[in-house]
Amino acid sequence: WASDSGDVSANFFIPSAPEFKIQFISFPKDTFVFPLNAETLTAYLEGIMLQFADQGIEILTYPEVTTGPAKFRIFGERALTISYSMDRNEQRITRGENWVEFDGMIHVVVVECPSRIFNQYYKDARVYLNSMSYFGGE
Predict the structure, then answer these.
(1) Which terminus, N or C, of the chain has the lesser number of Cβ atoms within 10 Å?
(2) Closest Cα to residue 12, out of 95, 125, 99?
(3) Residue 42, helix vs strand vs coil
């Protein structure tokens, strides 16, 4: 865990492999002026595509609402998942973002690493984070 997490609530990384990251971001639902749904996240994803066009961005997963098994859960809630890859520092990086609204907050778990091993790292992160618990205050 990095004590200087910048704009994220928690930043986890491997000191000897800083290109592997797991970030946890939480913010009040009221500060996100749009409803959290597949359409809003698709617009957000298209904005990222424009912002990082010079880095060869490729959209891998658009958000969708399904009734099958969840790709990712945060505090037991089914997350909306997006993923994309881009060139950064002379390597291909894949970033998966998982968004959920829970208890008046929006929580986002970001998993990022080199594309060649993203699927396994994402799978491991999903298992580790699936055990997270939320202790809300009264």
Answers:
(1) C
(2) 125
(3) helix
